Each structure stands twice: as C-alpha cells, then as structure tokens.
Amino acid sequence: MSRLRIFGVARTRAFRVLWIAKELGLEYEHLPIEIRAANPRAEEYLAINPNGRLPAIDDDGFILWESLAITLYLAKKHAFGRLYPADLHGEAKTWQWSLWAVNEVDRGVNIWSLHANRLPREERNPAALAEALKVLEAPFRVLDGALADRPYLLGEEFTVADLNVAAVMSRALPMDFSATPRLGTWLRRCHDRPAAREAVALRDAADAATPPEVTRMIAQRNRL
Ligand SMILES: N[C@@H](CCC(=O)N[C@@H](CS)C(=O)NCC(=O)O)C(=O)O
After folding, report:
1. Over residues 17-30, mean pLDDT
2. What class does CATH assign to 88-196?
C-alpha cells in the first residue's frame, strides 16, 4: 500500500497536489472525495482536515492541508536543489510567488472559469466575468513583467514556484492572453509538461463527471 494518500476529487485544488505528485514521480493513492456539501461521509474527513476543505494529504501518518503548503512540502522532501530551490533567496522567491498566486489570482481565476465555461450556460453572469478580468489585469501584468527576461519565474529552470502559480492559474488557460503574451506562453509551456497533462486529464474527467447542481452549489457557497 502506498504511503502517500491524496484526498480530493481532481476538479478541486487537489489538482495542484496531483500535478506535483506526478512531476516528482511519486507513488500515491488518490482518494477522490467530494466537497463537504456533496459528500455524505464528510464528517469522517474532518479528522483529516478540520476545515473540511480539499485537498489534504496523509504522508505516512503526517497530515497536511492547504494545497500550496502540500506542493512545497513534497517538492522540498523529494526534489531539494532541483524542483525546490536549495538557496535561501530562491526558496524565499518561491514562497513569494506562491503566496502571491493565492492572494492575487486564485479567486479571480475561479470566478472567471465558473462564468466562462463551468456553470450551465444560462447561469453564467457576464458582469461577474468582466469583474474577474478587471481584478486579474494588474497581477497578470506583474507576472508578464517578471517573465520579460527569463523563461521561468526563478530563471532558466522550471521550479515549484512555476508549478504553484501555473496550477493556481490553470483554469485560466483558455483566456485571451494577447495583452500579456509572455504570461500566456509561460502558462502553456508549464502545462505542456507530461505531469501537467496527466493532472489536467484527471481534472477534465472529474469536471465531466460533476453534476451541474454541484457546480452551482460551489458558486453559491463561495459567492463566486
Ligand atoms: N486555501 C485552500 C482552499 C481549499 C478549498 O477551498 N477547497 C475547496 C475545493 S477547491 C473546498 O474544499 N471547498 C469546500 C466547500 O466548498 O465546502 C487550499 O488551497 O487548499
């Protein structure tokens, strides 16, 4: 039996953890559990994550939640000096970009993707879509600027900083990036990686299996 267990259906932020696990070539067991409101066994999951949110991992008895804390932990554990920078400044920049992605981009991308393609057509709100694009404009320009002289956020190599930011932005892939072309090229480059393709395939399958009432509930509960 695998020692790493990943909790959360791939449609959720568990996607980020599945991507890093594949990037690192880890053996793992995936427990594709649903979000609380759609999960009759949700009470049991609170013992793993008292917030009731997905994802979480159980790494040989070590429980961790918060998707980007998990990706950073797994990268540091399994790819220190490669995917995870060994130097102090590289590590700090990785934290910077990861926290930035959660604070500046995560919610806007979520709102955009729900109203661009995930909610049933008649429930999509063009005003919410436009507002999300407005909120994302400034951080997208920042990211585009950071990629002016380098292919990846920390330099020449793909690191967990790229994985975290690209994973948070993943549902923005179909957006029009003509105003921030370096960002668009970088996002596609990150998603061309075999590990990303595999994680996206899992997410696509999970999306296809998600009933519209669950998507509607997610949008309502999180005011998206
Ligand atoms: N900051 C957390 C957010 C986790 C989160 O909100 N996950 C969503 C699914 S993507 C969830 O579990 N929502 C529970 C609910 O809506 O009841 C992380 O990145 O792990």
Report:
1. 98
2. mainly alpha
pLDDT in tens, 42-52: 889 999 999 99
Q: Ligand 1 test: best mutation among 54, 74, 107, 223, most atoms within 8 Å of CB?
A: 54
- Distance between CA atoms of residues 210 and 145, nearest Å: 37
As a whole number of angstroms, the distance between CA 84 and CA 143 comes to: 20
The alpha carbon dihedral of 200, 205, 206, 208 has a sign of: positive
**Distance from C-alpha of 177 to C-alpha of 5, rounded to nearest angstrom:** 36
Number of DSSP helices (H) and strands (E) in the chain, helices first = 10, 4
Question: At 94, which amino acid appears?
Answer: T
Bridge-based pairing state of the strands 56-59 and 29-31: unpaired
Provide CATH 1.20.1050.10 ranges for the chain: 88-196
pTM (two decimals)? 0.96
List the one residue out of 100, 22, 5 whose CA is nearest residue 59.
5
Q: Where in the chain is the domain with CATH 3.40.30.10?
A: 4-82
Q: 207 pLDDT exceeds 90?
A: yes
CA contacts within 13 A on the Cβ side of 184: 8
What is the domain class of 4-82 according to CATH? alpha beta
Ligand 1 center from residue 205 Cα (angstroms): 19
